[in-house]
Amino acid sequence: MLFATLKCFAIRPVNRVTLVGAVHDIQTGFLERHSVFQFTLTCSLLDFQKASAVQVKSTAPKTASAVGEDVDKYVSKEQYAVRCLGSESYTDALKGFLEECCIVRVVGRLKTIEASDGGKKQRFPCIIVEQGRWSSVSLLHSSRNQKRDWQLQNLLLSTALVE
């Protein structure tokens, strides 16, 4: 009973984030002793303050194309590197169902990684998804027809729970 109560109050990472975006630049490899599946996640963000200020100023009705152009002005895109660390079976399962331009939800730890570029050290944001540690990658939409998507999600969950 005591352990079940303590398990509910387990310390979770403070820098845990949830992002939804499109997958690009898929790479696989090894980092130290972990198998790594890495991709770039492109997220679209809407600046609500600027968009609401425009709606208050203009009260005249607009056409659909004009509204679309106005929205594009206030949408910005952010890119994050996502590193999925775990066993080879976990990264193989990710490789099996993730492809370019599919939409995914990523839950992981936000971390800045330092990279040197021509003598300069630059920091860039990276989401770390570790197998079985309060983090996950879920497929929301794919351009290819996936009739067995639920089986792939179950395979990922089972490999995440094994380790």
UniProtKB/TrEMBL annotation:
Which organism is this entry from?
Trypanosoma congolense (strain IL3000)
InterPro entries tied to this protein: NA-bd_OB-fold
Q: What is this protein called?
A: Uncharacterized protein
